[in-house]
From TrEMBL, chain A:
Keyword Membrane: yes
Membrane topology: Multi-pass membrane protein
Record's keyword terms, sorted: Membrane, Transmembrane, Transmembrane helix, Transport
Domain of life: Bacteria
Designated name of the protein: ABC transporter permease
Organism of origin: Caldanaerobacter subterraneus
Listed InterPro entries: MetI-like, MetI-like_sf
Family the entry assigns: Belongs to the binding-protein-dependent transport system permease family.
Domain ABC transmembrane type-1, residue spans: 102-314
GO cellular component: a single term: plasma membrane
Automatic annotation (TrEMBL), chain B:
Annotated InterPro entries: AAA+_ATPase (IPR003593), ABC_transporter-like_ATP-bd (IPR003439), Oligopep_ABC_C (IPR013563), P-loop_NTPase (IPR027417)
Protein's name according to its UniProt entry: Peptide/nickel transport system ATP-binding protein
UniProt cross-references to Gene3D superfamilies, sorted A to Z: P-loop containing nucleotide triphosphate hydrolases (3.40.50.300)
Organism: Caldanaerobacter subterraneus
GO biological process terms, semicolon-separated: peptide transport
From TrEMBL, chain C:
Compartment(s) of residence: Cell membrane
Pfam families for the chain: BPD_transp_1, OppC_N
Listed name of the protein: ABC-type dipeptide/oligopeptide/nickel transport system, permease component
Record-linked InterPro entries: BP-dependent_transpt_permease, MetI-like, MetI-like_sf, OppC_N
PANTHER family (alphabetical): D,D-DIPEPTIDE TRANSPORT SYSTEM PERMEASE PROTEIN DDPC-RELATED, OLIGOPEPTIDE TRANSPORT SYSTEM PERMEASE PROTEIN APPC
Biological source species: Caldanaerobacter subterraneus subsp. pacificus DSM 12653
Keywords assigned: Cell membrane, Membrane, Transmembrane, Transmembrane helix, Transport
Membrane topology recorded in Swiss-Prot or TrEMBL: Multi-pass membrane protein
Source taxon at top rank: Bacteria
GO cellular component: plasma membrane
TM ranges: 24-44, 85-106, 118-142, 189-208, 220-245, 257-277
CDD domains: TM_PBP2
Residue span(s) of domain ABC transmembrane type-1: 86-273
Automatic annotation (TrEMBL), chain D:
Gene Ontology cellular component terms for the protein in this record: ATP-binding cassette (ABC) transporter complex; periplasmic space
The keyword Transmembrane helix belongs to this UniProt entry's keyword annotation: no
PANTHER family associated with the record: OLIGOPEPTIDE-BINDING PROTEIN APPA, PERIPLASMIC BINDING COMPONENT OF ABC TRANSPORTER
GO molecular function, one term: peptide transmembrane transporter activity
Protein family according to the UniProt entry: Belongs to the bacterial solute-binding protein 5 family.
Protein name: Peptide/nickel transport system substrate-binding protein
Amino acid sequence: MNYFVNRLLYLLVVFVIAISGVFVLVNNMPGDPAYGLAVYIAQQRNMQFEQALEIAHKMMGIDPHESVVTRYVKFMNNLLRGNFGYSTFYNTSVNEIIARALPWTLFVISLATFISFSIGIYLGAFAAQKRGKTIDTLISTLASIIQAIPPFILAVLILFVFSVRFRLLPLGGAYPVDMEPSLSISFIGKVLLHAVGPILAVAIPQMASWTLSMRGNTAQVMEEDFIRFAEMRGLADSVIASKYIRNNAMLPLVASLAIGIGYMLGGQTLVESIFNYPGIGFYFGKAIAVRDFGLLTGLFSLIVIGVIVATFVADFVYALIDPRVKLK
Amino acid sequence: MSKIIEIKDVSKVFSRGFFKKKHRVVLEDINLEISKGDRLVIVGESGMGKTTLARIMADLEKPSSGEVLWFGEDIHKIDKRRRKELRGKVQYVHQDPYASLHPAKTIYKIIADPLANAQRVNGKTLYQRTKDLLEKIGLVPAEYFFNKYPHHLSGGGRQRLAIARALTTDPEVIIADEPISMIDMSLRAAIIKLFKDLNDLYGIAVVLVLHDIGAAKYFTFEKGEIVVLYGGKIVEKGRGIRILENPAHPYTRVLINSSPIADPELARNRVLEQLRSYDVPIRTKESKGCPFAHACNYYTEKCKEEVPPLVTIEEGHQVACHVFGK
Amino acid sequence: MRKESLKNFYYDYIQPLLVNKKSLIGLIILTFFILMATVGPLIVPLDMTSNFAERYQKPSLKHPFGTDYFGVDIFQQIVHGSRSVISLTMLASFFAVLIGTVIGVARGYLEGIVGRAIDAIIMVFLVIPSFPALLILAAVFMNYNLNVVEIALLVAVWLWAPLAKQISAQVLSLKSKEFVEASKMLNMPLRYILFSDIAKLLIPYIFINFVMQIKGAMEFSVGLMFLGLAKFDPTHWGIMLNYALYQAGALYTAKGFHYIFFIILNIVLLIYGGILLSQGVEEVFNPRLRGNE
Amino acid sequence: MNSVLKKFIAIFVIVFFTAGIFAGCGQQTKPSQEATQETKPQETVKTGEIRLATDWPFPFHGNPFGPGGVGGAWWFVYEPFAYYIPQTGEYIPRLAESWKVEENKVTVNLRKDAKFSDGEPFTSKDVVNTVNFIQAMWQWPYDIESVEAPDDHTVVFNLSKTSSSSFVHTLLTDGAMASLAPVHVYKDFVDQAKEVADLGKKIFYLQTEGKPVPEDMKTEYEKKSDEFRKKVNDFAPFKTLGKLPVVGSFEPVKVTQSEMEMKANKYHWASSQMKIDRVIFKKWSSNEFVWASLISNEIDAAHPSMPKDVVEQLSTLNPKLHVLTVSDLSDISLVFNFKKPLFKDLNLRKAIAHILDRNKIRDVSVWQANSYENYADGILKSMESKWITQDTLQKLTKYNTDTAAAEEILKNAGYKKVGDTWQQPNGQPVAFTLSVYGPHNDWVLAAREVVQELNSFGFKVEMKLIPEGMRDQVMRSGDYDAAIEFGSAWWGYPHPLTGYQRLYDGDVSAITSFPAKDKYNTPWGELSPYDLVLELQKNLQDENKAMEIIQQLAYITNEYLPVIPLYEKVLPIYYNDGYRVTGWPSKEDPIWSLAPGGIERVYDLLITTGKLVPVK
Amino acid sequence: MSIIIRVEDLRAVYLVREGTIKAADGISLDILENSVTAIVGESASGKSTIIEAMTKTLPPNGRILSGRVLYKGKDLLTMREEELRKIRWKEIALVPQAAQQSLNPTMKVIEHFKDTVEAHGVRWSHSELIEKASEKLRMVRLNPEAVLNSYPLQLSGGMKQRVLIALALLLDPVVLILDEPTSALDVLTQAHIIQLLKELKKMLKITLIFVTHDIAVAAELADKVAVIYGGNLVEYNSTFQIFKNPLHPYTRGLINSIMAVNADMSKVKPIPGDPPSLLNPPSGCRFHPRCEYAMEICKKEKPKWIRLDGEAHVACHLYEEGRPLK
């Protein structure tokens, strides 16, 4: 238990440093969210730009003269209370945006991770057991090639092929607006259908990397003495493959699974923007584009918290499932 | 000034846990001396503290209490430079020659680098000295090995190489931790022989940590001392041949009794002495009594309460036992 | 002696890579691209004059990869663009590996409060998501005219942390190795222990990471061009792709298939070469590394 | 371990399903029960639906004063007094039945059958309140000195003396003036709005008259307006009322991040003619996304810029897709930063005008656009013949693509070509950066072509992309050498004044720092374009005088090249005919010219006049 | 006594990056029922290869080139995998050398027992399983309650070794093969295991084959000893004969180099040189570079496997054509 307390304190320190770093970074970002509005006002009303800017600042509730330190103290203070700040662009609290967007992102990444993990584990173990055979070469070559495709290219291709060319998938959104959200089969079906694109874009590269890691791990575990001992005991291949090889090869991956989910929170910007999917990444991209610093810091903090929680959970899960760690 | 290493009242406690509450006494009040040209064997099973003792002697670990003197100077009180100077005189050979040799360096480099560092030589002299050293420990022809890597050698060859490396600083004492346990039976004698030769021919004091009583006997039957450790304490100490032929402590007896005998007839007829327990005792600061009490077949109530002192039962033979101490 | 050690080096590090199928193919691919970047522009001329009427020509002898939306030869652009792609990618990977190694080794060797502090720094860079951070950095540095080296450094800042973490773990285990202890016993100086004993075993590891970084650096550099941080280079593959996908909409027209295909092919092939090489390197060197643990 | 792993996976599955369910429920901003249960007027059931693409703020607040307003729903929701068709110059009455313009006074007679979508009648009180609201919130338009409501259906606007003559047009056609703040929705704010607006006006008039403004008045105003603004900004009718009562033809009923659903206003005055009772907006996230939506019939109409080949492909993939183009009343230009010494040299700008092949640039960038073949006179190509006399044209330099001419100009001015590179008279190479806003596809394509042509001529030009969200800032701060930007543009009011104002006393001059107040040599003597613009504004009603000034401005613009226009932007409008809706007017119909600056007006007009009908 | 396993001309190799390791090169051996056979050799001499090839459990890079292993008249090497699986463990159980890593680290000990039982279609209830497992664990002097619910890493090296033996005994096999059962164990534990095996042999009707590099262990336990050198069988004789009258020079060297506790230390004589690399084994007799009796023919011709009087088999040119060892 001491270990976890220790670890928690350490992660807390890391968190504070990271968040402060993010804050400094965002606050040094050039650009003024009120600029566009000011240009518009100045042009429409034929007034001096400086004056228009002042009006725009007031309209958006931005105080450009507030010192960075004050802002920082305010921000940290809010964060302590679980308040992620205020979005000037959306004119609402970041918490509300997170409440709207996070479930979708979590939905996509957890489903994508689940799918890619299960298939990747299976394929990796399968390939490793057929090491050197054609099927192994095929699987690992394919996985490597998929890994070589930059994710945004993959996302664009998926969108084009499935939504545009063959019109199999709906374009954009999380569900059709003319449906009432409910637990009905048809609604859940629509939600799943809308999520297929983003899920594929996340899951395919993931799957490739799980496959390759699992293949490597399996190959390593297969060399272990206890595998040969299991063979010597006359255990069936299927039992060895599942209980002995797969379980042991999977352990390190299960830990990285949790961490992976944390990291994916931050990596959704491109995919969600391409698929127009209303998750965290979508808002993140928007926040950068419109220089919504409040939203930006808020989402950044969320992602950092996500990664840290994931790291912590990974430690915990790993200790839970691996007796070698548990007993130490 | 013939004393090279003196260990005075050395204890070692390993602590762990967040508040360092869990602890384990690994060594307790050890006193030892090594003088020029000595042979010393530390025997005992694993977990008895022999490796820790050897590492403390070689200053690879700090004792929790007590003094370690090299050439009469407390190594934890002298300055770094002096310690460095003295360190060359005390060398250590690890148990596992696979791990103690750099896997990606050639044999030439493994010897020549420290040689150049210690002797401040280079060029042809370095080459010649490296060659001499390799030949000295029996890797002949030396040039054949120069561009080989450790994994090209057998276990015995590797251990020789590790010994050769220890010799680069012209040490006055070599401490070797289980130098033969990772080596094939047929090559073990040769390594022990090498240590004996180093001792005989160059006057280097040798401290061997062994669990193999036979090897201990081979090393000390001409001269040298044996120290038997149990539960972090010296239970018996004395001239090698004397102890092996007339063991006083019950543990020493069991140890000798359990050692393999290379004679089928004798082996089949011998009766193994069984202990009451084969567990390794875990001693804490609160532990009382003789560490062997829980396993000893001769224990008395006294053994549970009082730590037996190390008493001399004969010239050059000390034992720490309430029962056999007299 | 020297000749011998060269030979040894060849047999220990080069020859196994040539024997391993994966690393051999990877090496061939990478060599091909490096040649393309170095020698290519000298051989292949670049004519960027647009010719709208000649756009989307199918691959032919005259235009091996066809022409793009502007009617410019795609092959020429790929060849000339490889220079900026490869220089930025390689530099960024190099810096990432350099920073990662130095910090990782330092962390591995330093105990106590300094070590924990370095640990925390590594962790900080691990928990800040790199891509969004880079987006912001891109905006922050937008008005500085950064040169390739500076941009590579900027990219490397977000790549080194995982490597540093791995290296520090490696060093932590290596420094308690018995051969390191032996070097200490032999009074070997710290620099010898760090740069000869420890670094020697990290080299294959670092190399693998270097190759792995190529992928990350490649993606980042393309992203940076999109964002306008890196100096705009119309033949940079990332920009070509941007033109193809977003400006010219080549995906949406049957004529433009080859346009996108050849750009993606080259990007994927380059990264795939790196992946193959690193897989090969891992296969060749890791057993030995593992065997010594 | 096995069982633990299974548990772990089970937890995992549960977590993602709950996440999904959470995501499903409580996602969208939708009216509360109260709104849906309201008794509906008896209406014939209509089933027409049209799908469009646009943008809107999300979470949707329904407050036009809040950030983002109501997005693309604007013209469906807020009707102006009238629509103005630029091509015919005709005003189509909407909320106004008729109006009378007198000296500094506009009297508007409101339509008597206009009702809000919740059944409340639309009266002159709503207009008064709206004007107070805008003035209080936006500190604009102070052109309106006061507004009165003599009866429920008459509004009298008293304009200030300084009000420009084009303001009447704005007043009549601007969607903001009539119905933004219905009294029954904003009832808690009415008095406060009037108080703040009056105070603001008072200060403004004191300032324009050059009189001192008492400090306490200023502070009072600051305090009151801040308080008011904060209150209004926080007000989200769509959320708090659960509905958005609108006077326009459609009312938003359900809004998500990616889609917005609007239902017809049953009480709308044209309701009986409308055959379409539902509008679905898709989020316009990127042009490619809109292309994809058009191909797959996800939307019925949109106006993205699209390369030629994509259009061809689209038409083959979707034969129901039609395209037409209208002038976007704006042009894309090469603009210079006159703070950089390089561009102060007119010779260089002239040479550039000769080097560029503007037809080629147009082909690459927006192929449907109108090309400026010869001139750079600051008047849109499509309007040139209307505003520039033959006589004037004779006087203008023709900038046809002619590199030899360019070379000659440069050589005469002391430039030298050394190797492949042109050098300035001071020995420096002609080198600069061309900045272009990254997210605008057509601009980037144009920039690439410009850079390419200039480089092959022997200049050293590099291109730089301005990241998303940074355009105004970069351009305003003058942190560029040359750039691609809107040049002279008409925007809402199709008169050369708008364009010249932009060039010499507005946005473009703000970013280029073109010395507009300097005097320039013309056949009419030494003239300053800045003065000319002011003069033109004063003489707008006097057509002859205006024409004369316009000739002079055209001359200066063409000869002194504050910007080089590349092509006249057009709005390509794509619509699916016969998939969901049909009845689109012919491509020549002047109604399309209403599209620039608010294409939803066209859709609204087509629906409310019953022209667009659902496909059976 | 009848022959239970007959090995005929067994050849097995390992494929490695550098080439082919000829680990077992023409081994022929008869194992008698209910006897204890020791296979003695240095590390990498091919001794483990023999038993692994016999049971077809070579590591993935191992290949059996030729030979037959007849168990009760059936050739194990050509037997179908399914059939072989049934025989494995139920009739022939092999306890591998690496006892430390031979248990799945993520499974409790009890699950290993369960797996093994299930694999052989034995239908025991859970309580039956516990009972049987406990019985076998008690047989190797382990506390079943504690051990069964432990993870492997909670057990000491000696305990793991005993767990493996208990596991091997679970289905009452006919033949029990142990690979280095005592190496890497402490003296007392080693003696303990040897004692245990002796008792097992008395208690159960079982054929025991074990592999060791310590010929002293063979002396204690074995009825017959087979000596392997460099992948070749060099001598096969009864234990008593081997120790009394070693025929092959290597066997003789091996016995002379033992540092047993009862030995005359002045006669201990290490074998010079290093064991051969099986990648490029020496020509002719593989021992010739280290053999003090080496003749010209030894370099060229491989000695034949000849049977001398009694049970003695040897492969040495000294005995061919009736040349007696002097």
